[in-house]
Amino acid sequence: MCSLFISDLHLHPRRPELTQALHDFCQQQVEPQSKLFILGDLFEAWLGDDLGLAMYAEVVALLARQTQQGTQIYFISGNRDFLVGEAFSRTTGVTLLPEAYQLQMGQDRILLLHGDTLCTDDTDYQKFRQQVRQPQWQIEFLAQPADVRIAIANQYRQQSQSLTAQKLESIMDVSEAEVLCQLQQHDCNVLIHGHTHRPKVHCYNTTKDILQRIVLGDWDKHFYYLKWPDEGAWQLLKQTI
Ligand code: MN
Questions:
Q1: Per-residue pLDDT at 164
Q2: What is residue 59's predicted lDDT score, i.e. its pLDDT?
Q3: Buried b (16+ CB within 10 A) or exposed e, 189-206
Q4: Across 20-136, where does the E strand assignment appear?
Q5: Does the structure show a pLDDT above 90 at 237?
Q6: Ordered domains of the chain (ranges, CATH)
Q7: What is the per-residue pLDDT across 155-214, written as a single tens digit (0 to 9) for each?
Q8: Residue 206 Cα, ligand 1 centroid: separation in angstroms?
Q9: Ligand 1 centre from 218 Cα, in Å?
Q10: Measured between alpha carbons, how far is 170 from 152 in angstroms, rounded to an integer?
């Protein structure tokens, strides 16, 4: 059997072809015995389970069908869907994981992250992240009526877009020092993450070990997935949508 890893689908009702691609991916690649790890930004926006479950009813039904067939699906939230909560988990059967999760695959010790915590050079974003990940901020935000939440989210997005336009590409990428630091902290030799939309495999030779960082790609004209069989080598695969 095998484990599959995807991230940054950025599903949205305005992009039905992406939901269709997830549907096809599930049919072609995901077996009842598979494990599917979704490493954040599954949704373009998730402003609370009440809104999200209605807005993404088709995706929710698809995930629920898949878990009912026996597939174990795990989810680490991204910067766009960090408000995915218990009602989502109950409705879909998807297991919510903490923001950093360790996994053993054969000889490899793997660290799973969305990837935004690695972008430590982007100090504006890290400040914002710290604020919105506080339980108290989330309780207050989720207590607002839907239209207020949508307005606040739009405002944040506009601010972030105008800030992003002024930032260097390098600031928006991960800090390599932070990558090595987190791998060491979690005692892992492989890191799998998304977020940056820069699919690639990076290798680091340290005195102790050869470390690998596998970056998943975002779903747009193509989709990316990492396939890791229980026996054998992993592959980072790309398919046209
Ligand atoms: Mn992201």
A1: 85
A2: 98
A3: bbbbbbbbbbbeeeeeee
A4: 35-38, 72-75, 95-96, 100-105, 108-113
A5: yes
A6: 2-240 (3.60.21.10)
A7: 999 998 888 888 888 888 999 999 999 999 999 999 999 999 999 999 999 888 899 999
A8: 28
A9: 9
A10: 28
Q: How many Å lie between the centroid of ligand 1 and the Cα of residue 80?
A: 6
Which residues, chain by chain, have CB under 5 Å from ion ligand 1?
A: 41, 78-79, 195
Tokens in use for 38?
Answer: 């979704």
pTM for this predicted structure: 0.97
**Tokens (6 digits) for 212:** 């690998």
pLDDT digits 0-9 by tens, 104-135: 999 999 999 999 999 999 999 999 999 999 99
Distance 231 CA to ligand 1 centre (A): 30
Alpha-carbon gap, residue 79 to 74, rounded angstroms: 17
For residue 4, count CB atoms less than 10 angstroms from its CB and return exposed for 0-12, middle for 13-18, buried for 19 or more.
buried
